[in-house]
Write a structure and sequence with these properties.
The complex is a heterodimer. Helices cover 13% and strands 45% of the residues of chain A. By secondary structure, chain A is mostly beta strands. In chain A, the strands form 13 sheets. Chain A has a 22-stranded antiparallel beta barrel. Chain A has a 5-stranded mixed sheet with strand order 15-20-21-18-19. In chain A, a hairpin with a 5-residue loop joins strand 7 (156-159) and strand 8 (165-167). The chains are: A mainly beta, B mainly alpha. At the A-B interface, helix 11, strand 29, strand 30, strand 31 and strand 35 of A face helix 1, helix 3, helix 4, helix 6 and helix 22 of B.
Chain lengths: 1141, 595
């Protein structure tokens, strides 16, 4: 009976793997239960059989399964393949054997050790002895401990190749009976390195399990199914809930920035979070390169911010074509599979967590004169220098402040530079540098306004989550609700959301499960932030408020520079999005190993975005608009699965038929000139004088068929083949369908007997090939569309139309074909785990807005053209560096490199000029800066080497430039800057290397700490405003990055002047600055209350923690932050507590 | 039970597969497609609505082409006269990128022209009338293109596929083509268009045909067409009329240019106009003429100093509302500074000068002279006094801060509810006016050597404005263009007309000009240089003004050339890239509607 119970437990364990997590306490409880029940075993075990036409060997196996009996016989002598009927109730084993072998010339011998020998009648037992000897079954026992010599309860102990086994008890001890002499015993435990022991003479085996760098037995979610990590054929990365909860993220993208090899994510600077995602480089030139998100098996088209990170159990990132190909048309940019939390067997668990934090900027830049540590007069000095450049013919000291004049120039002389000097030098100077009345007033009063502080200031963040979950034999449930409220670091930037989730899985009968995974999110995007761009224009001598307490429209009195707080104070907004995403499923167990699942996934989204701009800022008697939009989607998936194992062959077949429909509705109405009052804002737009309305509805449909077969041979050779056929209505009606095949193979080399290297615990080779598609273009891109115009004449209105796009009935899917080779290695008992992948992906039939000469009347046409390549290497190294009683230190190093290349473009060949040379071949697209043979991210521009200095005046003049103008390499040295001759490839717009290093520490038992350092290296950022229009620089401010002047002959920035000489650079010029950075992105520390203390507080567990995001950044980027450019990036300090009841 | 389940799911799968062809058909919900609109007369008429509206970009909004072109002749200088910055890359001049827009309008006309015979017409007259109107607009745009850019590709049909192999056509070939197109249009456009003159009539077509014939050196045909207009139901306005007619201080020239007088039925001078009214709903009106932005000096600028040496003018009251001066004068930029030649010298005739000329066009009521701009800073001791340029830190600031305004043609106040920066409100606009028809016929007579007839026509225009008559002996091309400036500046695309005259002169090999070296030697350049001394005096404090003979044509926008990867669009000589030119095409195939 003991084995019977054990077996159930093991089965349970296997099922559990599907839910992946196994709580230590749970194992512990069950292990105790098993120990107690083991004593119930009785040799008088009775059996009941009612079988027809069953093989004898199966009956014997059944008896072995239900008892401690083991049968021994030689197949040549005993025919166990014979089929028979057996109908008995509560009979002993002797009775059954007599009945089975009656008249077959077979007798049996039940030995003391519960071994039953089957032999032909009259066989001499002595003759059998040597054979019995070699097959003698033994009882082994021992104790399993971890590296710190702590007993490990709940460790699975198995005879290799069988289901025969047990688990360790609370003291880590085990006893295993009926162990064959030549058996190999496997000790495995979640999170620990699995060990195999070859039996020797001894019967006591004490085993120490060490922590493994990664968990090979975890169940990884792949498309439409799951796989055990060690059996993966593709390239899949996983992020666990553990690393999510320490970050206090607003949305899941924040947990992915830099942490996963091959996944490129950029942090967002706004309160709503967000940021971009891209897997293995851009696979398209114009279609979306964001990965597909799958939530609990259902394709998710919504916003990532609808998913509460607190609900996430794990994320699996499918990177290679074979893994992703089951999603076919949507998978070219990779797939992120989100698995949400489930209930766990045992009593209901209630978790509560609270986080609070404050955000400040990572780095500050200031407009001139607004740096709190600087001199406000820097602003006036800047104007002085601009005016000197604008009016070079004026006397050199004309714009200087009187007290800054050199000794040899008298005030009188200086005053007389003007035909009509003011009454005193101060007024004269203020007039000369164009100070506005308010500036003069404030300057004279010594009043400085710190606009910076008004617009950028710390934001408070808070996040609360409550969840309840549990499971019984027939019901698994999880419910959660979370509230998050973020303030950005820009005044008025805020975001809050309430997100709730219900996951239910009900076993209705033995063959039917039904359930749902439903998420509901209320997101409040209402935020009218102050203008950071406007801050850059503010004078320190301006004023925010008028004397009468009203907001000052033009803080500097310059009527083209409005108040950066105007919208914050004068615009009303209501912007909320409510979304419901549900997955309703029924799963049927069918005969012959089949399993059928039908799931219906509806999505609803309702958005209200209402705005009202008061008369004060709109100037048109108030202006309001109400945008209402909604979205309704459904997807129906039919999934048929078949699992079968024949000896050394394992099959896993998945078939899918799917259909989807997406509708979106958008209506807006608007009005202006409100009377008698605008006080009702957007709640009553009917009171305006100029109403208008617009509607836009869209519909798309799609279908898919998919088949996948996983085949495993000898548990060493793993094959996956899949094929998917997709249809989508946006494509030209000649090609609505496309087919996406994939193949993969993996070889567990370390399982081979010829490979026996002591330090190499594991070695697996993975190869895959596949084709994926991209359909992310507008829903009507293949159709010619007409725009509409309103005409008016003395009889009234008339409606006009005009062609806006060209039709392309041949439009088809963009396809990415990719190869992946991967190597997984475990070293030193898997304490070091290395995973390396190299890939080569080529995208064909790029969906491109092909540029047309504007004289066609169209700017572009959506076409399939060209070829884009992405090659790369990525690796993940996990190590357990130290594992002692008081310190556990683990590291993860992630490295990714992607090289992108435009292989073919429009297919137009001829002669062209580039880099000062004549070329023959495929013509580049100069307008879009696409160059065949080069990366999509390459920067083609003038190579600016500095600024012309005063001692090079004559050389500069040859270019019609003057000192202070940018100086660039003149490749063909003809004293001209001509784009086709002188523009060079000067760098890349995206990081060329990405490195992430995470170190996790557990110390003093209850403390954990983690430090994550990220580096995005070797790329450049365009600084557009450096070469923008400078015609008003003498009247407003600009970000104070520096500029050239005779007194400050910098080589980094040009002079400020109007007109400047930028038009001497044919085709325009852009200045780039280094964008690479190394950042200490996350530091966290947490403390787990010891369980005794927690119990004292009537809690299961309690954890308090602190996290700092973006603490240090090392970069040469001159703007606010290398990730957010000219917008401030938050540095967030978070404190939190997690409670479990 | 299990059996039933199997049947259900197998049938579900089959259902999905079998219905997928129809299932995937795209379903446009909120937009029209060519297939369901251009199927009848109403569809093509809807396309015409857009075609008519396209013309408005010429006269309305910031950077409208009229304003941009006005800064390229002798009457005005665009901010700030530095033609060397006008390069194929753009260089900030709106007329460089204009080529893209114009071809967009031509595309809209071609949709109608190409599809005209895809419709079953009950009545061929309907077909021809719609076709004639589309041809009218297409010809208008090609006339503009030829005189802005010279040789350009002629596209005469709707493109339904990507095309990147364009070649330039000879501008003379294009003139031939649009001349014959306009002959068709003249035949079929209505004499009196419904509902108003914002649609082209037969006479508007004749006026355009006269200009095209003149450009094409078909002087007799030009005279013939112009004569038909002059003999038509039009007459120069000689008496007071319209909104301000009771204001004794004003005169008829002022009346002609009031915003809503242009469309009045009693205005017999208007041949073809555009409408832009405050009362039209959003989307059917523009944001205004921007004349007060483009042509008025920046009187409110901080450089406008008073006797204290401080700012003497203000745009806003302390409460943020506009000052009265700001609402009246507008936020002068100016995009175009009027030259002394236009503000003063061109009015010096027969012993009179601009202060005392009897010419109504230079009457005090039609101009704001420098002394009429007053300080409006209440705290200034000079409040209410004329702005004194001697108080400026630098006299050269008068280049932008203080110069006379041609008030009759630029004063278009915004509607009373408007509180934003005043830039020049809405107004109807003359596209073709009878005064120009006379001047066109006069020019045609001149080229034929018939100075007497030319003088008669010019005097028709002059007499209306009470200007002294000119004698036949004084008529030359310069006089004709002096008169065009007095009558039509800030109204027409003057540089196009100067280029037209330069081309005629070169084609006729007059005065030493020739077509071969037009970009090195032309009348346009010589005339501007001789009348606008700003180009020759050196740096006046705003950088050196410059103009070169090759600026007779604008450069072809470089992106037009580079995007056309399979063909060659010629660049104009003198600009970077002209070295890649190939000989232009000399034939245009007959279009389908002609066959």
């Amino acid at each position: 009976m003991k084995n019977f119970k054990t077996k159930i437990f093991i089965k349970l364990l296997e099922n559990k793997k599907n839910f992946r997590i196994m709580k230590l306490t749970l194992i512990f409880l069950i292990a105790c239960f098993v120990q107690v029940s083991a004593t119930v075993y009785s040799q008088n075990t009775k059996f009941t059989f009612d079988v027809k036409n069953k093989r004898v060997v199966e009956i014997l196996r059944e008896i072995e399964d239900q008892s401690d009996f083991r049968f021994f016989y030689q197949r040549e002598q005993v025919d166990v393949e014979r089929k028979t009927d057996l109908n008995i109730t509560d009979k002993t084993v002797e009775y059954i054997l007599t009945k089975l072998f009656e008249g077959k010339g077979i007798e049996f011998d039940v030995r003391e050790d519960k071994l039953i020998l089957l032999k032909p009648v009259g066989t001499d037992l002595k003759k059998l002895d040597p054979w019995i000897q070699t097959h003698q079954q033994r009882i082994i026992s021992g104790k399993v401990t971890d590296e710190r010599n702590q007993p490990l309860p709940g460790v699975t102990v198995l005879v290799k190749g069988t289901t025969h086994g047990t688990v360790t008890n609370v003291d880590g001890e085990y006893t295993l009976t009926n162990v064959p002499d030549d058996a190999i015993i496997i000790f495995s435990f979640v999170g620990m390195e699995t060990r195999e022991i070859n039996l020797e003479a001894d019967n006591i085996y004490n085993v120490t399990l060490s922590q493994s760098a990664i968990n090979l037995d975890e169940v990884v979610v792949i498309g439409y199914g799951t796989a055990i990590r060690r059996d993966l054929t593709g390239s899949v990365s996983r992020v666990e809930s553990g690393s999510i909860r320490e970050l206090a993220p607003t949305q899941l993208t924040e947990t992915l920035a830099g942490t996963v090899a091959g996944l490129y994510s950029v942090q967002s600077s706004s309160a709503a979070g967000g940021g971009s995602l891209e897997i293995r480089g851009p696979s398209s030139l114009t279609a979306s390169t964001s990965p597909l998100i799958v939530v609990d098996g259902a394709i998710f088209h919504g916003s990532i911010s609808e998913i509460n990170p607190a609900d996430i159990e794990s994320m699996d990132i499918l990177k290679d074509a074979s893994s992703a190909a089951v999603y076919g048309s949507k998978a070219a940019a990779g797939v992120i599979i989100v698995t949400t939390k489930r209930g766990e067997i045992g009593k209901p668990t209630i978790n509560f967590s609270a986080r609070g934090g404050v955000s400040v900027t990572t780095h500050d830049i200031y407009p001139y004169g607004l740096d709190p540590d600087g001199d406000p007069e820097d602003y006036l000095t800047m104007h002085r220098d601009v005016l000197r450049q604008n009016f070079p013919t004026r006397p050199y000291y004309y714009f200087f402040k009187p007290e800054d004049l050199p000794g040899d120039i008298s005030i009188d002389e200086w005053m007389n530079y003007s035909a009509n000097p003011a009454s005193n030098p101060m007024d004269e100077w203020m007039g000369r540098i164009n100070m506005y009345p308010i500036e003069i007033e404030n300057y004279k009063a010594g009043k400085i306004t710190n606009f910076y502080k008004e617009i950028i200031n710390p934001g408070i963040r808070q996040d609360y989550n409550l969840s309840a979950g549990g499971a019984t034999e027939n019901l698994n449930y999880y419910w959660s609700i979370g509230y998050l409220d973020n303030e950005g670091i820009v005044t008025g930037d805020k975001f809050n959301t309430i997100r709730s989730r219900v996951n239910i899985d009900l076993k209705v009968t033995e063959w039917l499960n039904v359930g749902t995974n439903t998420q509901f999110a209320l997101r409040d995007h209402t935020a009218v932030p102050a203008s950071v761009g406007g801050l850059g224009l503010m004078s320190p001598y301006g004023s925010i408020w008028n004397e009468d307490g009203k907001l000052r429209k033009y803080p500097n009195d310059y009527s083209l520079v409005g108040n950066p707080l105007a919208n914050y104070y004068e615009q009303d907004q209501y912007y909320k999005i409510n979304t419901l995403f549900a997955n309703l499923f029924a799963q049927f167990e069918l005969p012959f190993g089949f399993n059928y699942r039908i799931s219906f996934n509806p999505t609803f989204s309702f958005t209200k975005q209402y705005n009202f701009w008061s008369d004060y800022i709109s100037g048109v008697g108030g202006k309001g608009e109400r945008n209402d939009s909604s979205l309704s989607e459904w997807m129906l998936d039919n999934l048929l699965k078949w699992n079968k194992e024949f000896n050394i062959h394992k099959f896993d077949l998945t078939l899918l038929a799917s259909a989807e429909t997406n509708y979106s509705w958008w209506s807006t109405h608007y009005n202006s000139q409100f009377a008698p009052s605008e006080n009702l804002i957007f709640h009553a737009l009917q009171f305006g004088a100029l109403p208008g309305l617009k509607d836009n509805d869209e519909k798309s449909t799609g279908d898919a068929l998919m088949a996948r077969l996983n085949y495993t041979l000898l548990d060493k050779y793993l094959f996956t083949g899949s094929i998917r056929r997709d249809g989508y209505s946006a494509f030209g009606q000649k090609n609505p369908h496309a087919t996406f095949p994939a193949l993969a193979f993996a070889w567990k080399i370390s399982e081979e007997s010829f490979l026996n290297i002591s330090w190499l615990s594991r070695l697996k080779l993975r190869l895959s090939w596949g084709i994926n598609g991209n359909r992310e273009i507008g829903k009507y891109s293949a159709l010619a569309q007409l725009g509409s115009e309103l005409g008016w004449n003395t009889e009234g209105l008339e409606s006009g139309v005009y062609n806006t796009t060209l039709a392309n009935p041949n439009l088809m899917w963009e396809e990415t074909e990719s190869y992946n080779i991967g190597l997984d290695m475990g070293l030193l008992n898997n304490r070091i785990d290395i995973s390396i992948d190299a890939y080569d992906a080529t995208t064909y039939n790029l969906l491109l807005n092909r540029q047309l000469p504007a004289i066609t009347g169209f700017t572009n046409i959506m076409s399939n053209l060209g070829k884009l390549g992405n090659k790369g290497i990525e690796s993940t190294i996990n190590t357990v560096n130290i594992n002692t009683n008081n310190l556990n230190w683990r590291s993860q190093l992630v490295f990714s490199l992607n090289r992108n290349k435009i292989i073919e473009l429009w297919g137009d060949y001829g002669n062209y000029r580039l880099l000062g040379e004549d070329h023959t071949g495929e013509l580049p697209d100069f307008q879009n800066r696409y160059f065949p043979g080069y990366s999509r991210d390459i920067i083609w521009d003038y190579d600016v080497t500095g600024v012309w200095q005063l001692d090079k005046t004559e050389e500069a003049a040859a270019y019609k430039l003057v000192p202070g103008d940018y100086k660039a390499v003149d490749v063909i040295e003809d004293n001209n800057y001509r784009q086709l001759d002188d523009k060079k490839f000067i760098g890349y717009r995206t990081p060329q290397y990405r490195i992430g290093l995470k170190n996790d520490f557990t110390f003093l038992k209850n403390f954990t700490a983690s430090v994550f350092i990220r580096a995005d290296m070797n790329y450049l950022a365009p600084m557009g405003f450096l070469t923008g229009d400078q015609s008003t620089y003498d009247r407003r401010n600009v970000w104070g990055l520096g500029y050239w002047s005779p007194e400050n002959p910098t080589n980094d920035y040009q002079r400020y002047a109007f007109p400047n000489n930028l038009s001497k650079y044919e085709g325009g010029i852009t200045i780039y600055k280094p964008n690479g950075f190394v950042r200490v992105q996350d530091i966290s520390l947490s403390y787990n209350l010891p369980s005794t203390a927690a119990r004292y507080l009537l809690l299961n567990s309690m954890r308090i923690f602190a996290n700092i995001r973006n603490l240090f950044t090392f970069t040469n980027y001159p703007g606010f932050d290398p990730e957010s450019g000219m917008a401030p990036m938050p540095k967030t300090f978070t404190l939190g507590v997690d409670l479990s009841l | 039970m299990k059996r039933i389940i199997e049947i259900i799911f197998i049938s579900l799968i089959l259902l999905q597969v079998s219905c997928s062809d129809d299932f995937l058909k795209p379903e446009p919900l909120s937009f029209f497609a060519p297939e369901n609109i251009y199927v009848n007369r109403e569809g093509l008429e809807a396309a015409l609505v857009t075609v008519r509206k396209d013309l408005k970009v010429e006269f309305y909004g910031p950077g409208n082409t009229q304003g941009a072109i006005a800064g390229t002749d002798e009457g005005g200088c665009a901010w700030l006269g530095q033609w060397s910055t006008v390069t194929p890359s753009g260089g900030g001049n709106v007329a460089v990128g204009l080529i893209n827009n114009i071809y967009g309008y031509i595309k809209n006309t071609n949709v109608i022209i190409s599809r005209i015979d895809e419709i079953e017409w009950d009545n061929q007259e309907d077909r021809n009338t719609i076709l004639a109107e589309a041809l009218f607009y297409r010809s208008y745009w090609y006339y503009r293109l030829v005189h802005t850019y010279g040789d350009v590709p002629f596209i005469g049909y709707e493109l339904t596929n990507a095309k990147l192999d364009f070649y330039s056509h000879s501008s003379w070939t294009i003139l031939d083509k649009i001349q014959s197109d306009m002959e068709f249009a003249v035949e079929w456009l209505p004499e009196i268009p419904k509902p108003d003159r914002s649609r082209p009539s037969k006479y508007a077509a004749l006026h355009l045909l006269a200009k095209i014939c003149l450009a094409n050196t078909n002087f007799d045909k030009a005279i013939e067409a112009a004569t038909e207009v002059i003999n038509g139901p039009f007459a120069l306005m000689t008496g007071r009329f319209g909104s301000d007619k009771d204001d004794q201080w004003r005169n008829v020239y002022w009346d002609l240019h009031r915003p809503w007088n242009k469309a009045l039925a009693e205005n017999t001078e208007a041949i073809f106009i555009t409408l832009d009214r405050d009362e039209a709903p959003e989307g059917a009106k523009t944001i205004g003429t921007y004349t007060m932005r483009a042509y008025i000096c920046t009187w409110w600028n901080s450089r406008v100093k008073d006797s204290r040496g401080l700012m003497g003018c203000r745009t806003r009251n302390p409460d943020g509302s506009n000052t009265a001066a700001y609402d009246t004068l507008g936020r002068g930029n100016p995009n175009v500074t009027s030259t002394p030649w236009f503000t003063y010298h061109v009015w010096t005739e027969g012993g009179y000068n601009y202060t005392n000329t009897p010419d109504l066009r230079r009457a005090d009521c039609n101009w704001l002279d420098k002394h009429e701009f007053l300080y409006n800073e209440p705290t200034s001791p000079d409040y209410g006094k004329p702005i004194n340029p001697n108080y400026f830190s630098n006299l050269s600031d008068t280049l932008i801060c203080l110069f006379p305004a041609f008030w009759a043609k630029t004063y278009y106040p915004h509607e009373p509810t408007y509180t934003l920066h005043p830039m020049g409100g809405r107004s109807d606009w003359y596209v073709f006016r009878l005064a120009e028809t006379y001047l066109i016929r006069a020019e045609a007579y001149y080229w034929k050597g018939q100075q007497g007839l030319a003088a008669t026509d010019i005097n028709m225009v002059r007499e209306r404005s009470n200007a002294l008559p000119v004698s036949a002996g004084n008529i030359d091309i310069d006089y004709i263009f002096d008169e065009r400036a007095r009558e039509l500046w800030i109204e027409e695309m003057r540089k196009n007309e100067m280029v037209r005259a330069s081309r005629i002169m070169a084609k006729l090999n007059k005065n030493g000009y020739s077509l071969e070296n037009l970009s090195e030697n032309n009348w346009y350049y010589d005339r501007v240089m001789s009348l606008v001394h700003w180009y020759t005096v050196g740096d006046m404090g705003y950088g050196k003004f410059d103009l070169s003979p090759h600026n007779v044509y604008h450069p072809i926008y470089v992106n037009v050339i580079t995007a056309n990867t399979m063909g060659v669009i010629n660049q104009n000589k003198g600009y970077v890239g002209a070295e890649n030119n190939v000989p232009p095409l000399n034939t245009i195939e007959k279009e389908e509607w002609e066959q």
